[in-house]
Amino acid sequence: MRGHTDCLILASMIDPVADGVHLAGFDRYPKVYRGIVGRSCHGLDEVRRAELEGVDYVTISPVFETESKPGYGPPLGLGGLGRIARQAHVPVYALGGIDVGRVAACRDAGAAGVAVQGAVARSSNPEETIAALLDEWHS
Hints:
- This protein has helices spanning 44-53, 77-87, 103-109, 118-121, 126-137, and strands at 9-11, 20-23, 36-41, 57-60, 92-95, 113-115.
- By secondary structure, it is of the alpha/beta class.
- The protein has one domain (9-137): Aldolase class I (TIM Barrel, Alpha-Beta Barrel).
- Helix 3 links the parallel strand 5 and strand 6 (113-115).
- The radius of gyration is 14 Å and the shape is globular.
- The mean pLDDT is 90.
């Protein structure tokens, strides 16, 4: 995302201290905003609409079964993730059911990165889990 390594992106909320905003599918695209803008997508058609809006990146989900946000349709799997990542014109971040054991597979399928909620939120040691996720991505 524009060469950033550490950045703060807030969900559905524009804040001057943040580097960007991540929009849900139903959020309106900000008319005047100079930060990073991402959008949640659940298929290639939504990715195409987000690209036309001018987003900097998208998350695609669910890649795997997820406890955090059920009801977004069947998992896309690594094949679906890879197909979308290859056809997208913006970086695609994998979301949904991501844990340490699945990070490298998402990277190898073509994801620009992973977005993780449940594995960190349910961890007894979130800092250790985040470090393990990063180590696995860079392995």
